[in-house]
Design a protein that fits this description.
The chain is mostly helical and about 900 residues long. Among the domains are: about 15-180, P-loop containing nucleotide triphosphate hydrolases (Rossmann fold); about 180-235, no CATH class; about 360-455; about 680-790, Serine Threonine Protein Phosphatase 5, Tetratricopeptide repeat (Alpha Horseshoe); about 815-865, Winged helix-like DNA-binding domain superfamily/Winged helix DNA-binding domain (Arc Repressor Mutant, subunit A). The protein has 47 helices and 8 strands. The strands form 2 sheets. It has a 5-stranded parallel β-sheet with strand order 2-3-4-1-5. A 3-stranded antiparallel β-sheet has the order 6-8-7. Strand 7 and strand 8 form a beta hairpin. Helix 22 packs antiparallel against helix 23 (about 415-430), helix 22 (about 400-410) packs parallel to helix 24 and helix 46 packs across helix 47. The N and C termini lie far apart (about 70 Å).
Length: about 900
């Protein structure tokens, strides 16, 4: 039950630290909007630091234009802070105020300070006397060492502080620093007797953007509220106390031209000068926006050139409320004008949103139909989904092009029946498509059918649907555009369909061609997908190639902020699988942990199946057969969701049966093998599993006979399976007393394992004794054998030959973001513009990167990062 007491002061210790550190610079500026907590912070800090008796606190009067009155206040407060023995002369009012002389004398007198004194000038934005500001600048320039100056203002004062900034003598605390963190917001509400759930607290903190006054006003309203959770869900800038505060302290203070601009552009999520000119019908909006930002009027620039801006979310709510009150009939027209401007300037998502807000449904549908493929190929499928959700059902049912956009979204979400329904709807209404849009509609229809066929694992249907899409002449070098997009996506879908159903070299060629066109079209999201599935395919024959493709996919995904996106899932699983095969079990665990967070097995059952298989492999290698059996069983159950069983059906049941044999449950193993499809029961995989069963019951001869077909035609089996088969054959022949054949089998297994340094089969196959006895002087694979025995003894394998030592220290997330721009030709300033960081911050990150990588130049840093897999390998030939 909430109490009725109001919020108290929160001890903001990190900010206290910034204020205390400011002692080395002597001058601290707190510049932030109204209600940001500047005054409360300064007062609580002086208490916390034990400085209350040494603070000269000056609160500037409203619109102060009298320099003499200002300095009378300053000198009076300074004398009080020094104490009864003040050596600063009293200032008496005079008909003619000699301000500069007064300030020079004050600076000289303060040179006698023996203990620090803090001069706080609060509400400095109210000081309108130009001569007083000049005199204050003089005092700051001549301040003695023991005088600390704290300036609190709603906007930067005209004091020439840039000089102090250049020499490092200015500490700045701005609105972003003053925003309350989640923990501070929780403490503020708790002090008011308000307890919220974690979700509601996060929603309130996000809604207020950490604005101190907004949180305090919310706390006052929440104290004693019968339903705090509902209040937070409905909390906006139109809530009475917040609206009154913002109206009085921010909006009403602006000139009428600025108020009109703010109201009319409040319909936008972001605004620039040209768009504001359009919506207000007047020129000169950009300087107004820049001035509003300079005055911290809840307007924030979004780029380094200060051309795009946004408003605080609560302020936006108030402005929209004011627009509805003042000009209700203008709102749809403003949205219509914004949609046209955004369309003209290529901002399609904004154009669709404003067309929807204006209820221009035909325009919104046409724009989304034209651009949804590009959005999806840029990794913005969630954006498309959000836009679709805003269309009325009647619009979707009547628009065949929009129905296809819905269908593609449903394929991606795994709702294949709903996708069928919308494809059928589009086909029934196809006659509504105008002649000029007919070619695009046919391409869209064919591509949607291709996506559905690929998702169902129907390679024949996928090939049929892909042919018209691939029939168009391939784009020449340097070309991009929709043609390259469609061909690249069609080739990728075709390659994936064949990969999972009837894997062949053709699948690899489709994916390689798709990759080339994705790069040509500048589609990194599509590039990541092609690389990831090429990694899956390469893993059947070359672990090194699989790792290379997967690392490239992950590097591109992380550089674009897609590290936690579904698109990274297959590559993460491949990396886990490669490390598992090569005995790097801890690394494999790390990759699997990341994969767990992004793979959605219900939508990507093939990738989910591989993930379970790899987890089972790790458990098996670490001597945890019960956990391994559970993982293999989960993989076997996942087979029911896999649309194309030809490739995926079998490995899970083989490994499960082998683990059940290890657990001593032969009956369960036989039952598991009996579940194999008919076409798999005579496969190399089935023979290998049966050989395990024969060995488990001591029938070595039967094991040898069962393995014979596998070992006779070795070129047709995967190296991964053949290594196990030769080890099992060696173990069986050893039991039969044929030591020479056993030794030959181990040597053949080592030979097959050598190219990819495969270790896992030797760990899980009952061949430890054979490996210990294998003659070191006769083997051609002594290095690999040593690595295998080390892993069996509990040691990790050595670093890869191409793998340098570990980082001196892990790079931080911010440093990684800067690192990914180092291969580009962008300067440090331009990188800062891309990341919204200052030049000095970028340079600091670069110095840290060099130190952690152990290099001395940008070129060396890029090469070292590529060696470590932190960046994709160079595409340039060596």
């Amino acid at each position: 039950m909430a109490s009725s007491r109001g919020p108290s002061v929160v001890a903001r210790r990190e900010l206290f630290g910034l204020l205390s550190d400011g002692g080395s610079s002597g001058v601290t500026l707190l510049s932030a909007p109204a209600g940001s907590g500047k005054t409360v912070l300064l007062r609580s800090w002086t208490e916390h630091a034990g400085l209350r008796d040494r603070v000269a606190w000056v609160s500037v009067e409203h619109e102060e234009q009298d320099a003499q009155r200002f300095w009378l206040s300053v000198i009076g407060e300074v004398r009080a802070a020094i104490g009864a023995d003040a050596f600063v002369d009293r200032l008496e009012p005079a008909p003619v105020f000699q301000g500069e002389a007064v300030v020079q004398r004050l600076a000289a007198e303060l040179g006698s300070l023996e203990r620090p004194v803090v001069l706080v000038i609060d509400d400095l934005h109210e000081l309108r006397a130009a001569d007083a500001l000049r005199q204050l600048e003089l005092l700051i320039a001549r301040r003695p060492a023991l005088l600390r100056v704290m300036l609190a203002s709603r906007h930067d004062p005209r004091l020439g502080l840039h000089r102090l900034r250049l020499v490092g003598e200015l500490r700045e605390i701005r609105s972003t620093d003053l925003r309350f963190t989640l923990d501070e917001a929780r403490e503020l509400l708790a002090a008011a007797g308000v307890a919220l759930s974690g979700d509601s607290l996060a929603r309130l903190q996000e809604r207020t953007e950490g604005w101190a006054a907004g949180l305090r006003l919310a706390a006052l309203a929440l104290a004693g509220h019968p339903d705090p959770e509902r209040f937070v869900a409905e909390f906006t800038g139109s809530e009475r106390t917040v609206a009154d505060y913002l109206f009085a302290e921010v909006l009403e203070c602006q000139p009428e031209q600025a108020q009109r601009l703010l109201r009319r552009t409040a319909i936008l999520e972001r605004v620039n000068g040209a768009l504001a000119d359009l919506l207000t019908g007047a020129a000169g909006s950009l300087p107004i926006l820049q001035e509003l930002e300079e005055h911290n009027a809840f307007v924030f620039s979004l780029d380094a050139s200060r051309s795009w801006f946004r408003y605080h979310s609560l302020f936006t709510d108030l402005l929209r409320l004011e627009l509805e009150r003042a000009e209700p009939g203008a709102i749809r027209g403003l949205h219509r004008a914004a949609a046209a401007w955004y369309q003209e300037h290529g901002h399609i998502v904004d154009a669709v949103q404003h067309a929807q807000a204006a209820e221009e449904w035909a325009l919104a549908a046409r724009l989304l139909a034209d651009h949804s493929p590009s959005l999806a190929l840029d990794g913005r499928a969630a954006t498309v989904h959000a836009l679709l959700a805003r269309f009325p059902a009647r619009v979707v049912s009547a628009d065949p092009e929009l129905a296809l956009v819905f269908a593609r979204g449903q394929v991606a979400a795994g709702s294949l029946r709903d996708a069928d329904t919308h494809i059928a709807l589009a086909e029934r209404n196809a006659s509504k498509v105008t002649d000029d849009r007919r070619p695009g509609f046919e391409i869209s229809l064919g591509f949607t059918r291709l996506m559905l066929a690929r998702r169902r694992g129907d390679f024949a249907a996928a090939l049929t649907e892909a042919q018209p899409l691939l029939a168009a002449e391939a784009p020449a070098a340097g070309e991009a555009g929709r043609g390259a997009d469609v061909r690249a996506a069609a080739l990728m879908n075709l390659g994936i369909a064949e990969l999972w159903s009837i894997p062949s070299e053709e699948a690899g060629r489709y994916l390689e061609q798709g990759l080339r066109l994705a790069r040509l079209a500048g589609r990194p999201y599509l590039e990541v997908q092609c690389l990831a599935y090429l990694a899956v395919m390469a893993g059947r024959r070359s672990q090194a190639r699989a790792r290379e493709h997967a690392l490239q996919a992950i590097a591109i995904a992380e550089a674009r902020g897609w590290g936690a996106d579904r698109v990274a899932g297959p590559a993460l699983v491949v990396l886990a699988t490669v490390d598992a095969w090569q005995g790097r079990f801890e690394d494999a665990e790390d990759w699997l942990e990341r994969a767990d967070r992004v793979v959605r097995p219900e939508l990507e059952p093939e990738t989910g199946l591989l993930l379970h298989l790899t987890r089972g492999m790790l458990h098996a290698a670490r001597g945890r057969p019960e956990e391994a059996a559970a993982a293999f069983r989960a993989a076997a159950q996942m087979e029911a969701l896999v649309a194309a069983p030809q490739l995926m059906t079998g490995p899970a049941r083989r490994l499960l049966a082998q683990t059940q044999l290890q657990l001593g449950d032969a009956a369960a193993a036989r039952a598991t093998l009996a579940e194999l499809p008919e076409e798999k029961r005579d496969s190399d995989m089935a023979h290998t599993a049966l050989a395990y069963a024969h060995l488990a019951r001591g029938d070595a001869q039967a094991a040898v006979e069962t393995l014979a077909p596998v070992l006779e035609v070795t070129g047709q089996s995967l190296p991964l399976l053949l290594v196990e088969a030769f080890l099992l054959d060696a173990a069986a022949r050893d039991l039969l007393g044929d030591a020479r054949a056993a030794e030959s089998g181990v040597e053949r297994a080592l030979e097959l394992a050598e190219p990819d340094r495969l270790i896992w089969p030797f760990v899980v196959t009952p061949a430890r004794g054979l490996l210990d006895r294998h003659p070191r002087h006769r083997t051609a694979h002594g290095g690999l054998l040593k690595d295998i025995l080390d892993v069996l003894a509990g040691s990790p394998p050595p670093a890869r030959p191409s793998e340098p030592g570990a980082l001196r220290e892990e790079l931080s997330p911010s440093e990684l973001r800067v690192l990914r721009y180092l291969p580009s030709n962008l300067s440090a300033i331009e990188i800062g513009h891309e990341l919204y960081l200052s030049f000095h911050t970028v340079k600091t990150h670069m110095r840290n990167i060099y130190a952690k990588l152990g290099v001395h130049s940008r070129t060396e840093a890029v090469e070292r990062a590529r060696e470590l897999g932190l960046l994709a390998p160079s595409s340039r030939p060596r």
